[in-house]
């Protein structure tokens, strides 16, 4: 007769949650120091790394052991460490990399705003604005290093799913794709590479498209892609058959999100489509929910003006923008969805 497997008591899950903030600090420090790059392909000793970073050897060893317990490193013998596959993703000198994304999410400014989560819950407004006296993007405008890090983080986050969007989204009948809020062009470059007959228009702020030229050139699609600078709250470029918005709508509350979509609706031809790449929350939180989706929803509350939405929320948002949701399809291998909308009869902008 098979023995019953022991079930961990609830307090073990509680302790893991309570210690989660400490884990974030440990990983954040490792990335700021670029410890994963210093370890590289082989093994390094705690004493050697302590010398490299002018640190106290015993304390460095304790940091490395903490990273090993978190699955970032492995300790092959006492005081000797190597990267795990998770740790490899934190290297800045390799691809794919989540170095910039991790640095941005663990940046002291972002972490400081999270310490005022209670303000956001009480008021429904961003704690970041409350703490720093300006919104996140105004803060970025005054901090070139953090602005670069933010753009790199968005590119890294998009890079992980760009190829999947290019493969799983139907681009039949499309001649021109307009990527609204497309940053450095990581997503649009993947789409154009996968579909050589397509042309593209990359549309974002001047800061957003700052690195777009090199990204498009590296992908070999610069000759098929125009880069336009503008404000999607004011207008979007005309001439597209498909308007692509990846993680744009979730960054804004309903009024401004609907305005972005309404500008896309106005630019659409009768046969055109809008495709949003977003999280779609179920109506109730399932037992096997992905916690990061809900934590990101809170992050959008604390550090910005956005939110994650249910299918019903997207349908209402699109209706306000003169659009009808036609399909909501999970993007295989991710926790994102492809939300496809077409023009309704009325133009909300008149």
UniProtKB/TrEMBL annotation:
Coiled coil start-end: none
Gene3D superfamilies per UniProt: 1.10.287.1350, Vaccinia Virus protein VP39 (3.40.50.150), Winged helix-like DNA-binding domain superfamily/Winged helix DNA-binding domain (1.10.10.10)
InterPro entries membership: COMT-like, COMT_C, COMT_dimerisation, SAM-dependent_MTases_sf, WH-like_DNA-bd_sf, WH_DNA-bd_sf
GO MF annotations, alphabetized: O-methyltransferase activity; protein dimerization activity
Active site as annotated: 250
Keywords linked to the UniProt accession: Methyltransferase, S-adenosyl-L-methionine, Transferase
Signal peptide: none
Domain O-methyltransferase dimerisation, residue spans: 16-90
Domain O-methyltransferase C-terminal: from-to ranges: 114-323
The keyword Signal is assigned to this record: no
Keyword hit for S-adenosyl-L-methionine: yes
Any one GO BP annotation for this protein: methylation
Highest taxon listed in the record's lineage: Bacteria
PANTHER family, per the entry: O-METHYLTRANSFERASE CICE, PUTATIVE (AFU_ORTHOLOGUE AFUA_4G14580)-RELATED
Name the UniProt record assigns to this protein: Methyltransferase
């Amino acid at each position: 007769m098979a023995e019953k497997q022991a079930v961990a008591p609830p307090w073990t899950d509680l302790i893991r949650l309570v210690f989660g903030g400490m884990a974030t600090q440990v990983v954040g420090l490792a990335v700021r120091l670029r410890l994963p790059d210093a370890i590289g392909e082989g093994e390094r000793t705690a004493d050697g790394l302590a010398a490299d970073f002018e640190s106290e050897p015993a304390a460095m060893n304790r940091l490395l052991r903490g990273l090993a317990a978190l699955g970032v490193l492995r300790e092959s013998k006492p005081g000797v460490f190597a990267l795990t596959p998770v740790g490899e993703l934190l290297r800045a000198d390799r691809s794919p990399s989540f170095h910039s994304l991790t640095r941005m999410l663990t940046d002291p400014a972002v972490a400081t705003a999270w310490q005022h989560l209670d303000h956001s819950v009480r008021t429904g407004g961003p704690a970041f604005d409350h703490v720093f006296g300006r919104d996140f993007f105004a803060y970025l405008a005054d901090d070139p290093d953090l602005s670069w890090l933010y753009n790199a983080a968005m590119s890294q986050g998009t890079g992980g799913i760009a190829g999947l969007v290019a493969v799983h989204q139907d681009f039949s009948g499309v001649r021109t794709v307009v990527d609204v809020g497309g940053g450095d062009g990581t997503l649009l470059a993947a789409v154009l590479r996968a579909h050589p007959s397509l042309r593209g228009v990359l549309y974002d702020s001047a800061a957003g498209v700052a690195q777009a030229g090199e990204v498009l050139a590296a992908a070999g699609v610069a000759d098929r892609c125009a880069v336009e600078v503008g404000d999607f709250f004011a207008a979007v470029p005309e001439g597209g058959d498909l308007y692509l918005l990846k993680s744009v709508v979730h960054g804004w509350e309903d009024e401004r999100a609907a305005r972005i979509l309404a500008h896309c609706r106005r630019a659409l031809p009768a046969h055109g489509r809008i495709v949003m790449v977003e999280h779609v929350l179920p109506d109730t939180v399932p037992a096997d929910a992905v916690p990061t989706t809900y934590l990101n929803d809170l992050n959008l509350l604390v550090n910005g003006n956005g939110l994650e939405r249910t299918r019903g929320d997207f349908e209402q948002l699109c209706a306000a923008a003169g659009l009808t949701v036609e399909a909501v399809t999970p993007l295989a291998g991710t926790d994102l969805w492809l939300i496809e909308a077409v023009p309704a009869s009325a133009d909300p902008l008149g």
